[in-house]
Design brief:
Blueprint (H helix, E strand, L loop, with lengths): L6 H26 L3 H5 L2 H20 L2 H22 L7 H23 L3
């Protein structure tokens, strides 16, 4: 198994990150009422999203599918939730951060896996 990142994987990382972020932001807007444009124009969120999906890619290259899935979902909830609270200063309750970041992780992971043809 190659450890380098293919073009399909690079596209999967970016599209998964952006798609996950846009869809998660729509759900946050619908449920919490935060303005959609405010959410999707915070550039730090894109950086975190791309880094997370790149991390998911690394997990799939170095672990079994089950381990990669579990590790991706756990890290996709914990890392952005901690960053939201302690770096970006979010006042949202922890449960909201966990649920919305789990939603992002699922969406981004599905998009990444479909585009990059991960098995």
């Amino acid at each position: 198994m190659s450890k380098s990142v293919s073009n399909k994987e690079l596209v999967g990382i970016v599209v998964g990150a952006v798609g996950g972020l846009l869809l998660q932001s729509a759900v946050v807007t619908a449920i919490v009422g935060l303005p959609y444009l405010t959410l999707i124009t915070k550039w730090g969120r894109y950086g975190v999203s791309i880094a997370l999906v790149a991390l998911f890619c690394a997990f799939y290259k170095t672990m079994s599918r089950t381990q990669a899935l579990i590790t991706s979902l756990v890290s996709g909830v914990i890392i952005p939730s901690l960053l939201s609270k302690f770096v970006f200063g979010s006042g949202a309750p922890w449960i909201n951060l966990f649920v919305f970041n789990l939603l992002f992780s699922i969406i981004a992971l599905v998009i990444f896996r479909v585009i990059s043809k991960q098995k």
